[in-house]
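Ligand-bound model needed. nicotinamide-adenine-dinucleotide.
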Amino acid sequence: MRVLITGGAGFLGSHLSDAFIDRGDEVFVLDTGGISKVRHLLSNPRFHYVHDSVFNLDLLDSLAGKTDLIYHLAAVVGVEHYVADPYETLNINVNGTQNVLKAAYKYTRRVVFGSTSEVYGRNPKVPWSENDDRVLGATSIDRWCYSTSKAVGEHFCFAYQKLGLPVTVVRFFNIYGPRLDRLDVGRLFTIFMGQLLRGADLTVVGDGRQTRCFTYVSDAIEATVRAGVEPAAQGHAINIGTDVETSVMEFAKLMLELFGPSKSQLKFVRQEEIYGPSYEDIPRRVPDITKMKTLLGVTPQVSLREGTARTMEWFRRQQPE
Ligand SMILES: NC(=O)c1ccc[n+]([C@@H]2O[C@H](COP(=O)([O-])OP(=O)(O)OC[C@H]3O[C@@H](n4cnc5c(N)ncnc54)[C@H](O)[C@@H]3O)[C@@H](O)[C@H]2O)c1
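Prediction:
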């Protein structure tokens, strides 16, 4: 099979590329980013890296025409981006998604769209099943533009499906593992890891009681591959994650423990100090994973302790001696 992965040089895309290469498939990656996460694949004759954008319509057309399955993961990701540059977030996540869907529709190629737990917003009723409500704040608060941009992408997916395009939406819940963002930026793991390696305190935003369901990348990738190949997944939105809830404070303590002796301690900071006044944190974010288990046949296997230890080890190996 020939698989196109937009955003395939990113964190999830690089692991998804590995998974399809391991299955014996041919992978085309379309990404504006660097090659550091896919460098190990560049010499493989079944791997093709195209350094370009989902806004290059001719290129998208030719890639869609020669592939059988399309994963659309290209997006602006990360709180710091969607608070700092809402225009770019909305433009890439909404208009870029439309471009990919149009190209897929022309050749009737199956699409898997990478969405997010953020679409549920701050709905207080957890766990969230796929048809639960989206509860968001005012449009004057930039923080909600990422959630909205992905929800619009999902609406386009389901609209195209009504026109005959086979589509699956996967909503990822806090996936972590080797090759996550650069240290000190991006997501909780890399922020804490950067702080640990520098001997700085771990900055816990708010009171640290907000929870997340941290999902190890191999579990997420297994489900994501199945979302593209299982006929039963077509036409569905599916939560991808674990339903084991962990508070940010517990997670910070686990990282301190697994890191071993260090000068770092926990430091509580007000969220306005980190993300500015327009940010609003989500107190609990828990998926109902019944569909992931029944439609995709995947149950998360890797505990937070095991996954954190593996990921820490990977980041430590990247450090200069
Ligand atoms: N990792 C998670 O926990 C998580 C959670 C929720 C949703 N997601 C979604 O999964 C997808 C992948 O996320 P990730 O964690 O791998 O993030 P990532 O930032 O590592 O990957 C996104 C990739 O998209 C590329 N990209 C951006 N604009 C592009 C453009 N115009 N054309 C082509 N490529 C472009 C970037 O260069 C990057 O490599 C995203 O759509 C994201 O919204 C991830």
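Residues 2-176+216-243+281-301 form a domain with the Rossmann fold fold (CATH 3.40.50.720).
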